[in-house]
Amino acid sequence: MPARIIEELTSRKKEKIATFLTFESIVAVIVAFMPIFMISSSWPLLTRVPLCLAAAVAGYAVTLELHGLPLYEHALWTARGLFRLRVHGNRVVPEDLPGAIPAPDEDKVIAASGPIELVRRAAVVAPRLSPHPGGPVLPAATTDDPEAAQAHATAGLVTD
Known about the structure:
Blueprint: H1 2-11, H2 23-39, H3 45-63, E1 65-66, E2 69-70, H4 71-88, E3 137-138, H5 146-154, E4 158-159
Parallel strand pairs: 3-4
Antiparallel strand pairs: 1-2
Helix pairs in contact: 2-3
């Protein structure tokens, strides 16, 4: 039976009892108010009443939400933001944005020694276009073979 009562209390957590009071708020007020009320039973009334009222207000403030956050979390995030402004300034850099990929470090010069070798590639020469309607100009055959020259000529290619 006790488990059923606890289950009902947790499901009724945000249920409104009054326009500004929820079940959760009443529990927080009672939890904050009762210890102070019991401790201050022998104190003078002028001290006891303001202290108990302050405890009840603190209990209510714990459950109060401001912009979707409880009041204490809102105060904590505000303090965190002010601390960040004090330390880093108010300039936003790309690393501050969520999901932003930080820029890689600048290229570093590596000395070409040891297992690292400097490799040079030969320049690639693109074929030139011929002013002749026959097509692109190809370099002449490296052999002195007249049959290769004849093959170029019959293909419609002009040689230099």
